[in-house]
Amino acid sequence: MLWGRRREFRTLDGLLADVRAGRSRVLVVSGEPGLGKSALLGYAADTAQDFQVARAEGVESEMEMPFAALHQLCGRMLGRLGRLPGPQREALGVAFGLSSGRPPDRFLVGLAVLGLLSDVAAGRPLLCLVDDAQWLDQASARVLAFVARRVDAESVALLFGTRDPATAGDLAGLPGLVLEGLPEADARALLASVIPGRLDERVRDRIIAESGGNPLALLELPRGVTAAELAGGFGMADPLPLTYRIEQSFLYRITPLPEATRRLLLLAAAEPVGDPALLWRAAGNLGISAEDAAAPAEADGLLTVGAQVIFRHPLVRSAVYQAASIAERRRAHRAIAEATDPRTDPDRRAWHRAQATSAPDADVAAELERSANRAQARGGLAAAAAFLERAAALTLEPAQRAERALAAARATAQAGTFDAALRLLATAEAGPLDEFQRARADLLSGQIAFASSRGSDVPPLLLKAAKRLEPLDAGLARETYLQALSGAVYAGRFVTGGGLRKAAEAARAAPAVPERRARPICCWMAWRC
Fold it and tell me: Can you say whether the dihedral through the CA atoms of 485, 489, 492, 494 is positive or negative?
C-alpha cells in the first residue's frame, strides 16, 4: 500500500490510458531517495496487466559499461533485430557486442531502439521502466533520451525514476513528476503502522517534521530504536543527511546477521548484474554456502534471490558496500572476477580484476586497455575513459603510464568531462612523452579550451600544437592550423594580440595534404558532430 500518492496514481493511470488509446507517453519521476520512485514504477507495472513490460535499472558500478542499461531494456527484443533496416541493425549489433565494426553512429543506434520498441508494441502496448536513471551509463542515457523525445504513436510508455532534479542530466526537458514528502495526515498513518502503541504527539510531530515526510525514513528509522530514543525523536536531530541516516538504519539490521550472510551481501552489492548463478559461483570461491547464507537476509527483507538478485532498496546496496573495508571489497571483486567467464564477459571481468588490485599490475592494466579498445569500438567513450584511467593508475613503467594517461585524457574529453580530462592530461605531461605525444597533448589542451568556451586560450594553444606537429605529421599539422583558425573565428572579439591573423597566416602556409579532409574544431569530438 502506498500512502499519500493519489495525485501520482491519477497521473500514471492517465498516462497508461493514453498509451492504450494508441499514443506514446514519457514521464520522468524524480525525487530524493526514499520518496517512493521505485514503488510508483512498480504501481505502473502492476496496473498495466495488459501491457508488455521491459525493465532496466541504473547501477552506479556499471556506469562505465557502454550501453549496459540499454541492453537490459532491449535484451529480450533482440530476436526482432532482423526486422530493422540494415544500417540500424548493424549499429545496434556493434553497440551490443553482437558483431564487430566501426564505432556505431549514435543517431543510428537511437533510431534502431526506436524502431525496436515500435515493432514490439505493434501487437500489445509496451511499458518501459527505467529506474535509478541517475546511474545510467552515458551511452544508454543519451540513446534513451533521444528515443523519449521521438516516440509518438507507437503505444509505448517510457517511465524513468531518478534522483536527478528535473532540470538536470540527459532527461532534462521531458515531462516530469516531482515527488515530495507525504502530507502530514498520511505521514502520521504510515508512522503509526510501524510503531505499535501510543506515541506522544509532540514526539510524533517532531519525527514527521525531521523526516520531511520521507516514506522510507518513516518505515526504516524506527526499527530497533529504544523507547528512550523514540521519546527523543530517535536521534533525528542529528545534522547528518537523511539518506545517510537511512543507510545507517539498514546497517543496524545487517550487523547482527551471520558473517557468511554479510559476505554474501557484499558480493551482491559489488556485482551489479544481479545474476544469481554468478553470485553463487563467486560465493563458492569464498567458501560460502550461498543458499544458507542468503536465507537470513531474505527473511529480514533485505534481499530477494529469484530470477534476479534484488536489494530491498538501492540504499541497502550502498550501505553494505560503503560499510565494508577496502580489503573486504577487494576480496569480493576478486571472487567475482574469478567467477566471470572471460570469453562471454571480458570487460566486467577486467573491471572487477582492477577493483581487486591494490598495486601496479601490468597484466591487469593490459586487460583494461583491451577493454577500452572494445568500448571505443562500440561508441562507449565514458567507459573507454574509465578503463584507460584505471589502466594508467596500475601501470608502473613511466612511458607507458604517460601514454595511457594521455589516451585516457582524450577519451575523457570526448565524453565531455573536461575537468577530469585536464587532470589526466597533467598526469601525462608529467611523464616522459615523446615529441609527437607532446604535440598531441598540446592539441588536446586546445580542443578542451574550445569545448570549455575559453575562447581566447584556443588559438595560441592550437598554433603551438600545429607547429610541433609540422615535422611529425603534416596532415595533422594542417588540420590543427585550420582548427586554430576556426577557434579564432569562434572566439571573435575575445581574441587579442592578432590571434585571428596569426591563425589565418599559419593555416595558409601549412603544407597541403589533399587526401586528408580537415574537420572544423567543433567536430573533433564525436558527441559534438
Answer: negative
Percent of the chain clearing pLDDT 70 (strictly above): 84
| Angle, CA of 400, 407 and 93, to the nearest 5° | 120
Question: Contact, 199 vs 227, CB < 8 A?
Answer: no
- Distance (Å, rounded) from C-alpha 52 to C-alpha 116? 13
493 vs 316, higher pLDDT = 316
- Which residue, among 437, 431, 371, 451, has the nearest Cα to 407 in the 3D structure? 437
Q: Is the pLDDT of residue 260 over 50?
A: yes
Mean pLDDT, residues 499-513 taken together: 57
For residues 503 and 487, what is the distance between their CA atoms, to the nearest angstrom?
9
Specify which residues 53 forms β-bridges with: 127
| Residue (of 144, 152, 201) closest to 170 by Cα position | 144
* Rounded distance between C-alpha atoms, residue 449 and residue 263, angstroms: 47
- CA–CA separation, 521 vs 525, rounded Å? 8
Residue with cell 515493432: 119
Residue at 76: amino acid letter:
R
Q: pLDDT for 462-484, tens place per residue?
A: 778 777 877 887 778 777 777 77
Residue 419's contacts (CB-CB under 8 Å, 6 or more residues apart) are none
d(CA 237, CA 516): 66
Place of cell 526499527: 223
Say what the pTM is.
0.70
Strands (E) located in 91-194? 126-131, 156-162, 176-178
Q: How many Cβ atoms are within 10 Å of 299's Cβ, its own excluded? A: 11
- Note whether 272 and 59 are within 8 A (CB): yes
Say how many C-beta atoms besides its own lie within 10 A of residue 518's C-beta. Answer: 19
Q: What count of Cα atoms within 13 Å lies in the side-chain half-sphere of residue 455?
A: 12
H or E element that contains 57: strand 52-57
Quote the CA–CA distance of 169 and 416 in Å, as a whole number: 13
CB within 8 A of 39, min separation 6: which ones?
2, 215
The cell numbers describing 17, all together, are 490510458
CB contact at 8 A, 441 and 428? yes
Residue identified by cell 578542451 is 448
Looking at residue 97, its amino acid is G
Spatial contact of 413 and 421, defined as CB atoms under 8 Å apart: yes
